Q: What sequence folds into this?
């Protein structure tokens, strides 16, 4: 089914972005100030991949499963950003 294919593509994009971010973290070593921006770029690329996969799934299905596709995409986005925790400077104080 096309929805399953979209979910699979989104999962692969997330997995690859996580892998790339991990590889970058290992290779940078003492240059850790570079890891943050690079990991952020990888996360942004994965987010774009999720959006594209959801859009393609909606197009292929003629929008019949838009709510389910959106829910799946939102869950993928949540997984991508689950390690993002607000720091002291962003807690409104």
A:
């Amino acid at each position: 089914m096309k929805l399953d294919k979209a979910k699979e593509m989104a999962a692969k994009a997330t997995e690859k972005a996580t892998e790339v971010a991990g590889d970058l973290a290992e290779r940078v070593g003492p240059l850790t100030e570079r890891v943050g921006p690079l990991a952020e770029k990888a996360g942004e690329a994965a987010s774009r991949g999720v959006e594209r996969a959801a859009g393609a799934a909606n197009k292929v299905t003629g929008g019949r499963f838009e709510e389910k596709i959106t829910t799946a995409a939102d869950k993928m986005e949540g997984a991508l950003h689950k390690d993002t925790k607000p720091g002291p400077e962003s807690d409104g104080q």
Q: What stands out?
A: The CA atoms of residues 25 and 31 lie 9 Å apart. The chain has one domain: 2-80.
